[in-house]
Design goal:
The complex is a heterotrimer of chains A (317), B (305) and C (386). With 317 residues, chain A is mainly beta. In chain A, 7% of the residues lie in helices and 37% in strands. Chain B folds into 3 domains: 130 residues, Peroxisomal Thiolase, Chain A, domain 1 (3-Layer(aba) Sandwich), CATH 3.40.47; 31 residues, no CATH class; 120 residues, Peroxisomal Thiolase, Chain A, domain 1, CATH 3.40.47. The longest helix of chain B is centred in the first third of the chain and has 16 residues. Chain C has a domain of 132 residues: Peroxisomal Thiolase, Chain A, domain 1, CATH 3.40.47.10. Chain C is built from 13 helices and 11 strands. In chain C, strand 10 and strand 11 form a beta hairpin. Classes of the chains: A mainly beta (317), B alpha/beta (305), C alpha/beta (386). At the B-C interface, helix 3, strand 3, helix 4, strand 6 and helix 8 of B face helix 2, strand 3, helix 3, strand 8 and helix 9 of C.
Chain lengths: 317, 305, 386
């Protein structure tokens, strides 16, 4: 039995997350909007920036905000010679831990030395370069630059225009790879064959076949072709809208027990309530194109047959 | 404390891209471990696992892995969103209660599906870490710089997919299952402060406390397995733990790879194996997690309880 | 249990669709600080912290416990992150209880939370994952067919689910932390928009922000607590695979086994008679009768009768979800721990307006995944003898 190559498909996880702020972070991010850095007082000789709502050691609540000049010096730096797509600068820069004047913690940000790696090291005095348009984000502070570089920025008027939440876009790329058993099953689907596997322990035909029998944990080698028609053993009609939804509601999803299988599969059902019922007989409608995917089956539709007898699917309810 | 030992260790091949999925990886390591020990799933009192949803990009990835176990009839089971080494800790805690006698611990990770460098940036502060494009390289670079170990640059182990499983057993059950159990003489884990800027990245104070808690210096370990993805991190661990260069370290075959979510458990498994195979009387296993070695676990194995 | 474990502190946030007044860190601290306050302790008194939450996609932070260590006073201490899907709040409390019962620690803080307003639960739970048909439509999409199957097999009348909602929401009015306030009328239940047949909008749990925290301790440490402790008399968790031939997903074996283990430990023969109340994880109305059967409070296919005859009402023989339950507040990762916490509050006598008179023994229940992960405990006003 030749093993087909494992199947791979790209997948992206993407969302603009919203974060509530609370009083301390609210003050900090509204400070950024005004081109100003604020720290929080930790103890008599402690100021933390970025501010935390708690003391890092005792976890006591901290609330007293302190205005900083913004100037400081690099404590540690790591040079990025070839910025990646997710980095905040297209040209070489350094990630740095910066000790802001008056502060007892380090501020993690980036330093732009105009591409000069030798400058970006411990001891360099730096100050913020602010973005022209500021929205209340850590990126309002574009980067730190050597103090010697002349800087000016548009300072936004002070106001009570409070930020309510931060928008944090997250976008991650994946290459999803099907395993051995799943890859083979999907290849077979692309040939319009639905092939389950018999569990050596229970003698039941598992569908879709898995890397192991979920009941015994054993590998299942014996393949069993099943029919593309079967019986609806459970269903629902989805009427709710949600972000990322692929189909326009209402649509029906069903557990279909294919003839010859001992386990129902989940798929789409065409038709609306009234006509849908447990026990109804259905058949797969295949897509024209050969897909190595469960989507090789477009959906299931009703067969012109009498409903299955309840005892034929009772144990799958 | 009740004497508890690691009595069996099994791991998959470590490959840049494993052809196996979560179910298949779990099935492979759990069944090979049970076979080695002559156990059926029903003989095992507890199962604890570790895995990461973000690594696969979908929620509840541990649900499908359960299929590889054979969890019918239902099992006493828990899951941590942590390296398998921390799942081992939960199993050890449960064995302390005296109500169960053996526990299976497994972990799996398929880093090849994700961009790990990018993903690990999402562990840092959620208000500025992600928007700044902070990633694993940057965090590691800053730590190497803080430790004075940046030198010629960063050196990282290659990423790999894989899975591992171990069996813990208590008292006589351990002796029945293994001629030479690797007894857990001490185990402790701790976490450092959260904000990178509020830590002295060149030091690992929580690990120092763990070393004290397990009385590391009193055990005279002859072998150590340290979990560090970057070369400078391994040096930092040795310095913090007071391990000399003459101490054999990371000779296990899994040490050449970084199998995210699994490597920590593998290092414990390798350290225990050195005792089980009679190569040493005492060994140290270490696992780490989080940005810049924030979280560390130490486990001292010995040939007697 | 090797040694008794007590709940000496309970802390909850107010639950709401958006807690914009707090950062997610602040929200978690709000619950933790209240639990510490209840226990008369400071962060410094805590030996270890256990965190639980549902998938990290909700907040877009991978393993947020790394960020929460300092906020929860865990720097230089052990910190654990549990994730067992919807049951995680329960599993988190159980982990903490085991740390005490095993004699590893004296005082443990456990916290469970979810900030659902960071994203959208339907999105986070319905990835369009490669190779699959687009059939995933949130938790309701998964559970609706099970409910349909239950209705078919039990022949329960249509309004059972509606009555569960009306009861829980009436109860929520007595709980100042509850998200949804105000009970719907029968007519409103009848005409609510259908989301996933047969589940309508009002029969669905809300999406909430919130956190819940517990301080657990040894019996010795509990003796110094300012309020009466609740003792963990039994705890159990069980799991089974999500799909296999012949699986009864309506009343899963894992749930039955978990309850059986629990009653064995607590030496309970008749749970309905011997428990004074229960906090059961009911995210969709029909799960109340389904779990009543699974937990042994009712015979097979008869659980709905307990709903209709008022047995599970506030003044009934087995009050269920007097806090308002998951149907009134649902910060997913915390929802299980809230059940455990509310059970503890009852036996501590601290449940305020929703206190069940003379509650001495209570059940906390959580489940997750495809009705496949179960975590439960029984708390009482005394430790188990022996």
């Amino acid at each position: 039995m030749g093993e087909p190559a494992g199947l791979t498909q790209p997948y992206r996880l993407e969302y603009v997350y919203k974060r509530g702020l609370g009083p301390v972070l609210n003050a900090f991010f509204n400070g950024l909007k005004r081109a100003q850095l604020l720290g929080v007082r930790g103890g008599e000789n402690e100021i933390f920036c970025p501010p935390s709502e708690y003391h890092p050691e005792s976890a006591e609540s901290l609330t007293e905000m302190v205005e900083l000049t913004g100037a400081g010096e690099i404590v540690h730096a790591f040079w990025i010679a070839q910025p990646l797509a997710h980095h905040p600068s297209k040209t070489p820069f350094a990630f740095a831990l910066i000790r802001l004047d008056q502060c007892s913690s380090h501020f993690l940000h980036i330093v732009d030395t105009g591409g000069d790696e030798s400058l970006a090291c411990a001891g360099l005095r730096v100050r913020p370069r602010w973005a022209d348009e500021r929205i209340g984000s850590i990126r309002d502070l574009e980067s730190f630059v050597p103090e010697s570089v002349d800087q000016s920025c548009v300072v936004m008027p002070e106001g009570d225009e409070l930020l309510e939440r931060l928008n944090i876009p997250v976008s991650l790329e994946y290459q999803v790879r099907a395993g051995r058993v799943q890859s083979r099953f999907l290849h077979q689907l692309s040939e319009r064959k639905i092939i389950g596997r018999r569990s050596p322990a229970s003698q039941k035909v598992l569908l879709p076949p898995r890397g192991a029998c979920p009941q015994s944990g054993e590998l299942c080698a014996a393949e069993v072709e099943v029919s593309d028609s079967g019986t609806v053993v459970a269903f629902t009609v989805v009427r709710i809208d949600f972000p990322g939804q692929q189909l326009k509601p209402p649509y029906a999803c069903a557990s279909v027990l294919l003839d010859g299988a001992d386990q129902p599969i989940l798929h789409l059902l065409k038709g609306l309530p009234g006509s849908l019922r447990i026990g109804m007989r259905v058949v797969a409608v295949w897509r024209d194109e050969a897909l190595a995917s469960m989507q090789a089956i477009d959906y299931f539709c009703a067969l012109d047959e009498a409903d299955a007898a309840a005892d034929t699917y009772a144990e799958h309810l | 404390m009740r004497p508890v030992a690691l009595v069996g260790f099994s791991h998959s091949e470590l490959q840049p891209e494993s052809p196996l999925d979560e179910v298949e990886l779990t099935q492979q390591v759990c069944s090979s471990l049970r076979d080695k020990l002559g156990l059926k799933q029903q003989d095992i009192d507890l199962v604890v696992s570790g895995s990461c949803d973000f690594l696969s990009g979908r929620p509840f990835v541990f649900i499908s892995a359960l299929d590889g176990l054979g969890a019918v009839p239902p099992i006493d089971e828990s899951h941590v969103e942590m390296d398998g080494a921390f799942a081992l800790y939960e199993a050890w805690v449960r064995l302390q209660s005296g109500e169960i006698d053996c526990a299976l611990v497994y972990a799996f990770g398929r880093s090849s599906q994700a961009n790990l460098n990018r993903l690990l940036g999402l562990q840092s502060d959620p208000h500025w870490g992600a928007p700044l494009g902070l990633d694993e390289q940057a965090i590691a670079g800053l730590q190497a710089s803080a430790a004075g170990l940046l030198g010629a640059g960063l050196e990282r182990l290659p990423e790999a997919d894989g899975a591992a499983a171990v069996l813990l057993a208590a008292g006589d059950r351990a002796r029945q299952l293994c001629p030479r159990p690797a007894w857990i003489r001490a185990i402790d884990h701790r976490i450092d402060r959260s904000e990178l800027g509020q830590r002295n990245l060149g030091q690992l104070p929580a690990l120092e406390r763990s070393a004290e808690a397990v009385s590391l210096s009193s055990h005279q370990v002859e072998y150590a397995e340290l979990h560090a993805v970057f070369t400078h991190q391994r040096q930092m661990l040795k310095t913090t733990l007071g391990l000399g260069d003459e101490l054999p370290t990371n000779q296990g075959k899994t040490s050449a790879f970084d199998a995210f979510m699994v490597s920590g458990l593998m290092h414990l498994g390798e350290a225990a194996e050195a005792v089980m195979q009679g190569r040493v009387k005492r060994s140290l296993g270490h696992a780490s997690a989080g940005p810049a070695l924030q979280q560390n676990l130490l486990c001292v194995f010995g040939d007697s309880p | 249990m090797k040694r008794p474990c007590a709940v000496i502190g309970v802390g909850q946030t107010r639950y709401a669709a958006k807690r914009q007044d707090q950062s997610f860190t602040g929200l978690v601290r709000e619950a933790a600080l209240r639990a510490l306050d209840d226990a008369g302790l400071q962060f410094a008194d805590i030996d270890a912290v256990v965190i639980g939450k549902a998938p990290d996609f909700f907040e877009g932070i991978m393993m947020p416990e790394h960020h929460l260590a300092s906020a929860l006073g865990a720097a230089n201490k052990p910190m654990i992150r549990v994730h067992t899907a919807g049951s995680v709040g329960g599993s988190t409390a159980l982990y903490a209880a085991h740390l005490i019962a095993a004699g590893v620690h004296e005082r443990v803080l456990c916290v469970a939370f979810e900030v659902q307003s960071c994203s959208n639960a339907m999105w986070a739970l319905s990835p369009v994952y490669p190779f699959q048909p687009p059939v995933v439509a949130g938790a309701g999409g998964f559970f609706a067919p099970l409910i349909q199957a239950y209705i078919n097999r039990s022949k329960a009348p249509q309004d059972v689910g509606w009555r569960v909602v009306m009861k829980d929401r009436r109860n929520a009015a007595k709980n100042p932390f509850a998200h949804l306030q105000g009970a719907p009328t029968y007519e409103q239940m009848q005409s609510a928009q259908m989301l996933w047949d047969p589940i309508n909008y009002l029969e669905t749990c809300p999406s909430s922000d919130g956190a819940c925290a517990l301080v657990l301790s040894s019996e010795k440490a509990a003796a110094k607590a300012p309020s009466p402790p609740a003792f963990v008399q039994a705890m159990a968790q069980r799991s089974e695979p999500i799909f296999f031939p012949g699986r009864d997903a309506v009343s899963p074996q894992a749930g039955k086994d978990c309850a059986a283990a629990l009653y064995r430990q607590a030496q309970i023969k008749d749970p309905r008679a011997e428990l004074d109340m229960a906090e059961i994880y009911v995210p969709f109305s029909w799960f109340e009768p389904m779990w009543l059967e699974n937990l042994g409070f009712a015979e097979v296919d008869q659980g709905w009768r307990m709903v209709l005859d008022g047995s599970t009402d506030f003044g009934g023989c087995l009050p269920v979800n007097v806090s308002g339950g998951v149907l009134s507040s649902n910060p997913i990762g915390a929802s299980g721990m809230i059940r455990f916490a509310e059970a503890a509050l009852q036996v501590k006598g601290q449940a305020g307006a929703h206190q069940v008179p003379k509650a001495r023994r209570a059940l906390g229940h959580a489940y997750g995944g495809g009705s496949q992960f179960f975590a439960m405990w029984i708390v009482g006003d005394t430790p188990m003898a022996g």
